């Protein structure tokens, strides 16, 4: 099995207190993008994922950091080929311009974890100057081909010194599903204060919504790559601790967001936008440690529902495949006892051919396999793109009733 350095954290990543309690245990879990060749199956990295909640600041988090430098160097997952994702990214950039920075000339956007540059393309088209910061050399090359300049590397507290001189003062710092990957979120926010415009700077962050994770039992979103899991209340709290005011939880309507998306906009205290914080209402669905007590039991029941669904399909003489090789697909399969019964895992843009999903061993294939090697039922892990997937698979002869949303199956609706 591949060895990686694991550093264990002994205090809360947000408030620094040492008063954490465990709420969930997932044994021997892989990385989300660590697909392997059949000859190397079983050698991929696996380690327990334990989720804790701080009894002082109520932030849910892991207490281990895995060395990800090599892993992210070759990271290739991207939603850039999705029309749904492109629409979302244009909506986000457009909302920033319309609501806060209508005059974009000379305004600068730095995106941390910029991937293939898709989000920055949307900002650039609106007149912003843009720069990406991305650990994957593969995705940096794709971004450069799109005309998006990128700095390759993991963003740390020292990264501000690596920025081009022109971007050592910016108007917007954007992070899409990256802030919750940072091992030291407070240190990152401190770094932001040194480069973000004090008068009208904006921190635009998209993370997975812990309230939704708990409500939907989306255990697949508890990953080695994630360090913290936020609610509106804890997002506001960490921003306040670092000298920011949260001014918006509704940058774009929920109907236009992706599957599990908490978006918040923050600004330095004292900026011209800071008074808007008074109008922000914060949800408090998880107000105490006690509210987390049923999380594990509910999640284990949901995992049982996934296994029961696959067993039901197979026992009836039908075949089943999974759709979506992102984190939801990989991590869902990694816990399921019935995962080997899936014929394959489809991805519109697979990392490569001939690979297996880590731990579960389900073969990774392209969408063409659904035509050349058809199945009876499809478990859709990337349910946020369901309409788009239904439309694409209709061209291959699949009917909507053959496609089953991960959320429905987790809830026992099958």
Helix-strand blueprint:
Blueprint: E1 6-8, E2 20-29, E3 47-54, E4 60-62, E5 64-66, H1 69-73, H2 83-99, E6 108-112, H3 118-125, E7 129-134, H4 137-145, E8 150-152, E9 172-176, H5 185-195, E10 202-207, H6 210-216, E11 228-229, H7 232-241, E12 244-248, E13 262-268, H8 295-315, E14 320-323, H9 327-335, E15 345-347, E16 364-366, H10 369-372, E17 377-380, H11 386-394, E18 403-405, H12 406-410
Helix pairs in contact: 2-3
Task: Outline the structure in words.
- With 414 residues, the chain is an alpha/beta fold.
- It is 28% helix and 20% strand.
- It is built from twelve helices and 18 strands.
- The protein has helices spanning 69-73, 83-99, 118-125, 137-145, 185-195, 210-216, 232-241, 295-315, 327-335, 369-372, 386-394, 406-410, and strands at 6-8, 20-29, 47-54, 60-62, 64-66, 108-112, 129-134, 150-152, 172-176, 202-207, 228-229, 244-248, 262-268, 320-323, 345-347, 364-366, 377-380, 403-405.
- The strands form four sheets. A seven-stranded mixed sheet has the order 8-7-6-9-10-13-12, with helices on both faces. The chain has a five-stranded parallel sheet with strand order 16-15-14-17-18. A four-stranded antiparallel sheet has the order 2-3-4-11, with helices on one face.
- α9 links the parallel β14 (320-323) and β15.
- α2 packs across α3 (118-125).
- The radius of gyration is 21 Å and the shape is globular.
- The two termini are 36 Å apart.
- 47% of the residues are buried.
- The mean pLDDT is 93.
